[in-house]
Model the fold of this input.
Amino acid sequence: MIDPSNVPAVGSAETVARFFFKRDFNQTTKRPKQDAFIPPPRYLDLSVTRHRDASIAEIWLIGRDVERERSVKAAIEGRSPIVLVGCGNLLVSNYEQHGLNAIANAEPANPNHALILGWPENKEEQKKIALALASICDFQPIPATSPLNPPTLS
Amino acid sequence: MLTLNGESPAARYSAEVSLSLFARLHGQFGMNEVVENDLEEVFEDCRNENWDGAEAEAVSWDTYNLAKNFLLAFPRGTPIPSIGAEPDGSITAEWASTRYRTLSVSVTPNGELCYAALIDDRTDSGREIFCGFVPARIKQLIREVVT
Done:
């Protein structure tokens, strides 16, 4: 993982991952939906995780942490469990082609955390960009159970 | 065992199952099921703020009802969409045949239908007011993405 005391700027050639959960997934196409790339309206910033200096196992552990954190909240509120189904990898330049940009946003639990900024406020434009990103991302399903990826409790 | 009209119960059951599967595949009964199952589940899971753990807006009762009326306004035979939600509290319906042929319609909290489509190398988008019937443009885009 990236050294938290020395977080470099995000480069255009870097690969970043966006985690997908069950509702983000279209069972017909077996692909992530555009919903997963729509930014939250308050800050228009999309969370991603940088692959830089991270092993694949570490990327999945971050995904599992996010899944666990959200599932706890969901359970408290009586909602269905949040299920991680995979991640979509894209180059930062893929985002930049749509006028977006990436900045480092290291968090205590994830020094590789970054944000995709520069989203248009117009919803149709957001959806067009999200559709394009969902169509080209390299979708990786969560790998089968392994010592680094223990099964979740159901 | 034969029945009076010459069909065995097993044959009749088999025919009913085949008809049901055919109907489901061709959307004959699909939209009601989408509303009763998928839409209901999305609403239950997203009716409170922060449903995504990332400060999403709640999906309101009004948005849920509008989405329900929108889905039930489709004619029989319409392919069934995948239902989801967006962080601004919109409910989405997505029709797709491949990753490059996709239509996403958002039923927004302010009562609009906001859509975007990717059809091979072409994109389309727009905004419509839902007045109880499905806008012709959206029907046309569904035909384009699923055929």
User: Anything to note?
Assistant: The interface with chain A takes residues 41-42, 44-45, 48, 50-57, 82, 84-88, 90, 92, 94, 96-100, 102, 104, 106, 108, 114-118, 123, 125-127 of chain B (CB under 8 Å). Chain B has a mean pLDDT of 86. The helical segments of chain B are 9-25, 30-46, 61-72, 136-146. The longest strand of chain B covers residues 91-98.
